[in-house]
Amino acid sequence: MSKSLFNDFQPMSSKAWKQKIQVDLKGADYNDVLIWKTNEGINVKPFYHADDFKTLPEISKSKATDWKICQAITVTDAKTANSKALDAINRGAESLIFNIESEIISIKDLFQDIDLTKTNVDIKCNFLSKDYVENILDVTLSAVEESRVNIHTDIIGHLVKTGNWHNNLNDDHSKFKTIVTSTNQISINLGLYQNAGSTIVQQLAYGLAHANEYLNHLDKAIASEAKQSLQVTFNLSVGSNYFFEIAKIRALRQLWATLASEYGVNTDCRIIATPSKRNTTIYDYNINMLRTTTECMSAILGGANVICNIPYDALFHKSNEFGERISRNQLLVLKNESYFDKVNNPTDGSYYIESLTEQLAEKALILFKNIEANGGFLSQLKEGTIQRKIKESAAKEQADFDAEKLVLLGTNKHPNSEDKMKTDLEISPFLKIKKRKTIIEPIIEKRLSEKLEIKRLSKE
Which residues, listed in sequence order, are joined to residue 185 by a DSSP beta bridge? Predict the structure, then answer.
């Protein structure tokens, strides 16, 4: 056998590569021309090298071969939602999210004929009720010995989104403790921070501080043996910064493992990823399919457990079979035709992604420690510090969009002047703020293109 071709080439150091690039730039400044400065405070280099690492990163625990295709269903009528769920499963959905609006919804009717040994089900209630959770457990555990039902209880997420507790701080925490001890499950909503305009570092730090409030509160309430099996689910939104979003999910797992180990709880977490709403548009709306596809790709490669796509027309159309079928088919194509379920840890060893993961985790940990040193997440929400920081980040991103530095094709770049939308709006795609008394300032989700779209609609 002849010797390897690679033996004929000497290894090149990162310093040698940089010197060669500097020569080719012919006097132009390397830092000005080739370094990309991001809102996360990370300077992205034109190349990455093994020299960037003191020790090579460990193999990650994520399993890209196990991710599940998910369908989200808003439940206002149990039998209608059940029929829709069975149809979705028949058409390829492997996991379901039921967003339950009211306590009058019959769990028995909702779960009729759904095989809980094969289909994962996540339940998110728009209310806080110990009795309703007990009813869910009674119905699902009586159906099978070990169901795949996850009950999401996130009282701080509700506070952040609405500005109020469900009832009050003490009552919410009392019910929360009872629910968690009976389900051994906790849920944290990071998606709100992304859709409100937070940087990735902020999303990670706020999510960690959000989770830390729960672990602090429950530290003595959960038995030590239960801590080892505690299931923590992070719900996050994935933006269009492809490699950064991959690194975000990887960094989240690392940060959670670090925090969880301090409390002696299960260091593995479950991640449900959904494409961002912040960059979706009503004009040239088919591009939403491209955005959500690449965002789902980031989620898969980053190691999310469940991917729940959003329909391309969800902004302005009522729930409809076509939009939901297309959103589900995007995931089916990624899994079954694009081979996005064949390799575990597909991004391990990429110097660029490993470097991003490390930097995001480090910066988020610094911000998390700062939050804790200044009273914790709830205290900073009450003071308005978290809200102010998110507003600042969102304003910077909005300014970049308005100046066309941040491009949404078909909206602020190369818009189709013949595109008309006024008669196609079944629901309002714009932010509506209802004035009400709140104990903290809520964190508001807002799309980048709203102001521009309102202006275009006024001229149709």
Answer: 231
For residue 183 the two structure tokens come to 């389900």
φ, ψ dihedrals at 338, nearest 5°: -110, 0
Chain centroid to CA 127: how far? 22
Mean pLDDT of 53-72: 88
Cα–Cα distance, 284 to 420 (Å, whole number): 9
> How does DSSP classify residue 409?
B
- CB neighbours of residue 376 within 10 Å: 15
| Main-chain dihedrals φ then ψ at residue 98, nearest 5 degrees | -100, 115
**Does 63 or 104 have the greater pLDDT score?**
104
Number of Cβ within a 10 Å radius of residue 336: 12
Going from the N-terminus, what domains does the chain have, and what CATH number goes with each? 64-356 (3.20.20.240)
Dist. CA 228–CA 224, nearest whole Å: 7
| Interatomic CA distance for residues 444 and 441, integer angstroms | 9
pLDDT at 1: 45
Task: Find the DSSP H helices in 118-199.
Answer: 130-143, 155-162, 169-183, 191-195
DSSP 238-307: E-S-HHHHHHHHHHHHHHHHHHHHHHT-----EEEEEE-STT--STTTTHHHHHHHHHHHHHHHHT-SEE
Structure tokens that stand for 288 in this block? 């939403």
Residues facing 307 on adjacent strands: 69, 273
pTM: 0.95
Task: Locate 374 and state its tokens.
Answer: 């200044």
Q: Are strands 149-152 and 120-125 parallel, antiparallel or unpaired?
A: parallel
Helix (H) or strand (E) holding 366: helix 351-373
Interhelix angle 169-183/130-143, rounded to 10 degrees, is: 10
Closest to 301 (Cα-Cα) out of 269, 328, 266, 338 = 338
Among 43, 402, 354, 377, which Cα is nearest to 190's? Answer: 377
